[in-house]
Amino acid sequence: MRNFYFAVAGLLVVGASLLGGRVVYTRAHSQAKASAAAPSVAPSAKSQTPAAGAPSPANESEKTLGPFPIAGQNYSVELRTMKVQAESAGEGGDTVVAMEIRNAAGAVQYQRTFPYVKGTEDSFESWSVSALPLMGTSGAGLLVGYNNYFEPSAPEEEPTGWFQIFGVLGGKLAPFGPPLEVQGGLLDQYIDGNAYTAARSLGAQADEVDFKIWAGHCRIVFPIRVDWNKGWLTPAQDCAMSAGELSAGCQYKVVPEPQLYVSDITFVRLWPSPAEKSGAPQNAVVKKDSKVELETALVATKWVEGDSAGPANKRGPMDDAASLGVDSGADLWIKVRIDGKEGWIHSEEDFRALGLPEDE
Amino acid sequence: MTVFRILARPELRICALAALVCMAAPVRSAQASTQEPGAAIGVRVEDSEQHAGPFAIAGQSYTVVLHEKHLTGVGESTFAQTLAGIEIRDAGGTVAYQETFPYAIEQGRFQRSLSASADIISGKTGAGLVIHYHEQLAPQSGTLGVAEFWQMFGLVNGRLGPLGKPTPIGEGATGGPFMGVMMRAANGTVSVISQPDTIEVRVWTGAFYVFVPLRVDWNRGGLAQGQRCFEMMGGGNREVGCDMRVEGERKPPTEEFSFVRVFSEANEKMGEPEHVVVQQNSKVEILGSSAITKWNQSGELAQPVFSDLWLHVRIDNHTGWIHGDEDFAAVGLPRASPAQ
């Protein structure tokens, strides 16, 4: 079983772990599925450069992702990897210790390092890096994903990873801010071959790029505005609290769940509006063959700016990251339609009755 | 445990009622037919008596006399009569206890209708008399106010007297009831300080009956709650409901579906409830109940008041606890007045 995890980690080095589709229950499972959707990028073994104090050079290798054509130039992502278990053989069980983005001439445009921790069968940690072209209507760039996998770990509905968008500014590839920490991933609907496409245009200079965010009982679609000219990212809609009520900007689309209630019969309480004071709830019967649609979620989200100066490596290799996600303790309301009956649900007992997913 | 079961069992209730009718046929007295303030023109007040008993207690015989007032010439029957007083007489006709109850007439009817029934209540070590009062207040804001009161009597020092309000366990007042306690000393010696007797009274909760246990000290004339329950909470004790037997007469559902939230424990804070749909063909079993019971004193009468009332149910293959009028109604036990 442990060998399986190592094999997964190895695949992720050359794959695109950020291509998280529907992620179910375990991080290992999610990564395995993500790698299945990865573009075919052949690793190219190059010179092996031992790191100071690192295991023998036999445990090291280099791999290249790309080339990725962006604004008329080709870029590649160079990865230096090491075996998580020094004595393990074969392709599996690699962890990335360094990444560089180079232009066609070999000049380094961006670089980042990751710690190496020698693992055992029961306890290990690995880093993986993936990359995809990002295709917008008014710009194009590179979407790089960073994933950290470790054992032992608790199963989660959605893994936490980091995404970083790069674009061309002044003729040079540059990061549009620090990596963005997200518990969620990319949306299947925007994966077009070996590229990730923007959801829609937001004018002549910007595109909306959507991410999937875990909201505790559902996955919401969080839109990010990518400004190609200024080279920065901001939330595409403003979620704010005013007089104790969430603004319209806190309403998000919900990713459909393939499987909900599967038992004989139950019910959920539907409120007319996303507030318990909006009126008495109506009970809606849910049967295993009921048509259940998750329409909208209302939940407080937060966007925390990162450190553009780069990582200080005091709290890990991603301690410069920005983050986006559902605010801690946020009250989640989901607008549902059950056999044509529409309303809002929001409590644990109703989420559970409807069979919505939850972390163990 | 000997129980005040006559009221609990329908067939015995019928027998008891029949006996009461036979033994205590009401005697309508024409001695006091008067025109009273508040009574409409043509409406007069008549007195009547009903006799219940005789009841044999410790070799003595007692009869309960119910003094009633009746309005003549009114259409509505509920508020056309009320209890104005009771007497308990011994075999020689001497009044051992008496109580009067105020009444008022407005808009041609009594403002409250009070009725009472009497019966023997017996335990392992003694017996007494219980009077159950049923009060119905004239409708206000479209709702009927209904209340039940109880009065228990025991023979103390050869005289029949009221036992008073049940005292909460652990809160015995000076001069109050002295309940039995078994003390085990370090050397294993067991001493029994008085032997209490346990009885049950069948009390209407608003949707169903529960059987409330009481402890009686027949010899000293004491009455106390039969149980009181606590749970450890943050280093201290918190009072919680005690389990009680329940009797409910379910009404068949008229809706295709009704809905209940079934908790694993009789505590809203213990886990998320399961959402259960009650269908017309669902098998619903009433397993028990739980509540905190307090006894209020209203004059000489005692009134049980329930809080944190739960019903233990099994609905098809779902077992757990429900509470609240809405959920009680969903299992066929809507809020209603007790059957008289």
- Molecular shape of chain A: globular
- Summed up, the helix count of chain A is 3
In N-to-C order, the SSE pattern of chain B is: HEEEEEEEEEEEEEEEEEEEEEEEEH
Largest interface: A-B, 11 and 10 residues
The shape of chain B, in one word, is globular
Strand percent estimate of chain A: 35-45%
Count the strands of chain A? 25
Order of helices and strands of chain A: HHEEEEEEEEEEEEEEEEEEEEEEEEEH
> Spans of chain A of 5+ residues with little confidence (pLDDT < 50)?
1-55
> What is the end-to-end distance of chain B?
26 Å
Oligomeric composition of the shown chains = heterodimer
Radius of gyration of chain B: 23 Å
Mean pLDDT of chain A: 82
Major sheet description of chain B: 7 strands, antiparallel
Look at the helices and sheets of chain B and give the structural class.
Answer: mainly beta
Fraction of residues in H or I helices of chain B: under 10%
What helical percentage do the residues of chain A reach?
Answer: under 10%
Task: Give a concise summary.
The complex is a heterodimer of chains A (360) and B (340). By secondary structure, chain A is mainly beta.
Report on the architecture of this protein.
The complex is a heterodimer of chains A (360) and B (340). By secondary structure, chain A is mainly beta. Chain A is built from 3 helices and 25 strands. The two termini of chain A are 21 Å apart. In chain A, 44% of the residues are buried. In chain B, the strands form 7 sheets. In chain B, strands 14, 15, 16, 19, 22, 23 and 24 form a 7-stranded antiparallel beta sheet that branches. Chain B contains 2 helices and 24 strands. Chain B has 340 residues and is mostly beta strands. Chains A and B meet through strand 19 and helix 3 of A and strand 20 and strand 21 of B.
